[in-house]
Design a protein that fits this description.
This protein is α/β, with parallel strands linked by helices. Helix content is 30%, strand content 15%. It has a six-stranded parallel β-sheet, with helices on both faces.
Length: 220
């Protein structure tokens, strides 16, 4: 069944976009490795945390990483805090756009994710759980996408969806990139509101909430 919506839909990632997942992940990495791996935020220079080395050159083993991801999805995600200004800026966006929070978190995290969103009063219209790297495949016709994953942002751009990456150490862009890299939710929301994409009438979309995936991908 399809239905008409009056606000243009936008795709907003959760981890390291709405929620400061990075702080929690690095804490779990220290705990699981018994202090052997101690990453600073600036040490996370690639999207795959397990490939990053701390100041002493240490990084996680594959088994340690699986444990970190499992711990995050079962309880650690509740420790994450929303980034500054997320709530008021998503309220601004929600007045203009239909806000879809889209994440590639493991299926085990779905109830906790919804609980976290409610606990922190995160404004949104729908939540979707998809496989890593496949947010752009949702049959919704997004007008904008905001993510911390540079490759996901490029995937949106490739199908004609304007994309913004939230500035993080792992998502630097070259100066000719068609993707915007912005810091701070006030800046991001203002850019989207002041530069709305062309609207071609009503948007048709399928029902929300795709089935959650399972596995041990990095939350995004």
């Amino acid at each position: 069944m399809f239905r008409t919506v009056s606000r243009s839909p936008i795709c907003i990632d959760i981890d390291n976009t709405v929620a400061d997942t990075d702080t929690v992940m690095r804490h779990l990495m220290r705990a699981v490795s018994a202090g052997r791996v101690d990453l600073d935020h600036e040490d996370v220079i690639c999207y795959e945390y397990w490939k990053c080395r701390d100041a002493r050159g240490n990084r996680l083993t594959s088994e340690e990483w699986k444990k970190v991801v499992s711990d995050f999805h079962t309880e650690g995600l509740l420790d994450a805090q929303p980034y500054e200004d997320v709530v008021p800026q998503l309220e601004r966006l929600k007045d203009v756009f239909e806000v879809h929070l889209v994440t590639s978190r493991d299926s085990a995290s779905a109830p906790l994710t919804r609980s976290w969103l409610s606990q922190h009063g995160i404004p949104h219209d729908f939540v979707h759980f998809v496989r890593h790297g496949e947010k752009h495949r949702l049959p919704i016709g997004f007008s904008y996408a905001v993510d911390d994953d540079r490759e996901q942002a490029y995937a949106f751009y490739a199908i004609g969806v304007p994309a913004i990456v939230v500035s993080q150490p792992w998502n630097h862009l070259d100066r000719h990139s068609p993707i915007e890299r912005l810091s701070g939710w006030k800046t991001i929301a203002t850019r989207m509101i002041e530069r709305p994409p062309p609207r071609n009438g009503a948007v048709l979309r399928s029902p929300p909430d795709a089935d959650p995936p399972s596995g041990h991908a990095r939350p995004s």
